[in-house]
Design a protein that fits this description.
Layout lengths: L9 E6 L11 E4 L3 E2 L7 E2 L14 E2 L4 E8 L5 H9 L3 E5 L2 E7 L8 E7 L4 E17 L6 E8 L1 E2 L11 E3 L11 E4 L2 E2 L3 E9 L3 E3 L10 E3 L4 E9 L4 H8 L3 E10 L2 E11 L14 E8 L8 E6 L5
Parallel strand pairs: 2-13
Antiparallel strand pairs: 1-2, 1-9, 3-6, 4-5, 6-11, 7-8, 8-23, 9-10, 10-11, 10-12, 10-16, 14-15, 14-20, 16-19, 17-18, 19-22, 20-21, 21-22, 21-23
């Protein structure tokens, strides 16, 4: 028996046909950076009186399995996670430039079985009934480009010494780079953007029924929330004017490209808050706009992925 090493861990994932039921075949092998999934059942301290100072055994509380997976913005594999976040896309295009258009607001979202394995030990367990609640992507001038995917799972199987994934399909491609990022308003790139964070949430509501296994019965999609936090160097009244008069703006391209392939988010109706312009020293003055997207006239968020994968 060896020691579990992060470098050797594996992740296999598959959409479920029935919530909480792991399919026998069809798993995808996906790369990841880190994860915090895992079923927990905390202890409740015994509160009985009259039994002396030592007390009795604690009681196990309900089981939960909420956690994050940090994944690279791999131009092929990110489609798997976008499908989990936004539901099935409209697939089109031709070989070498297949297009996949994902829109927010679908009433039904897929659940997944995700196996995490430590071959060195060996130890494998499956997190089942896992539904994507949120995705966050941080934009910067340089560095590696990742997405943090937050999930709510129904449970985790007992750990065994062999994978249950069966035949695997490797889903992997080139990684988009931070240096290729752009944010456009009405087709024109915003200047002097220092950093940005995109957050899309499904607002999942857990169905917390009384159950002998102590697990949730499922999740229900709530109100979609789409936000983008933009930090800019202050050199123009453009965004400030939009924030002051309450005029929504269209961010028609937020994304990255590499050759013929790209990932682009669009938010057709975005409101900017009125913000401070603090001065804390001799260097440049920054503005932080925590913007919110509206779904009044169209889906709050549309994501268009162009890559080599025919369909998701």
């Amino acid at each position: 028996m060896g020691y579990g090493m992060g470098i050797n861990t594996v992740m296999y994932a598959i959409p479920e046909v029935t919530y909480g039921v792991t399919p026998a075949t069809g798993f995808n092998k996906l790369s990841y950076i880190s994860h915090t999934l895992g079923e927990e059942s905390p202890l409740i301290e015994d509160d009985q009186l009259g039994l002396g100072r030592e007390g009795h055994d604690p009681t196990y509380d309900v089981k939960t399995n909420d956690g994050d997976i940090v994944v690279p913005l791999d131009m092929e594999a990110i489609g798997f996670w976008l499908r989990g976040l936004l539901g099935a896309p409209v697939n089109g295009g031709t070989a070498g430039a297949y297009s996949h258009v994902f829109e927010s607001g679908k009433s039904v979202l897929p659940s997944h079985s995700i196996e995490i394995g430590h071959p060195d030990v060996p130890a494998f367990s499956v997190h089942y009934g896992a539904v994507v609640n949120q995705m966050r992507i941080g934009m910067a001038r340089s560095g590696l480009l990742n997405a943090t995917v937050s999930l709510i799972a129904k449970g985790e199987t007992a750990t065994v010494n062999a994978s249950v994934a069966g035949g695997l399909v490797l889903v992997s491609g080139d990684r988009f780079a931070q240096a290729s990022g752009v944010i456009k308003r009405d087709g024109v790139a915003l200047g002097n953007v220092v950093s940005a964070d995109i957050t899309i949430s499904n607002g999942l509501d857990k169905i917390e029924t009384i159950s002998p296994d102590g697990r949730i019965s499922g999740v229900i999609p709530g109100i979609v929330q789409a936000q983008i936090n933009i930090r800019t160097r202050f050199n123009s009244l453009d965004l400030l004017a939009a924030a002051t008069d309450g005029t929504p703006v269209e961010l028609d391209e937020i994304g990255w490209s590499k050759g013929p392939h790209s990932l682009k988010f669009s938010m057709p109706r975005v409101f900017l808050p009125k913000v401070k312009r603090p001065v804390d020293g001799p260097r440049g003055v920054m503005q932080d706009f925590n913007c919110q997207a509206s779904g009044r006239v169209a889906p709050k968020v549309t994501a268009t992925l162009t890559n080599n994968t025919e369909f998701y």
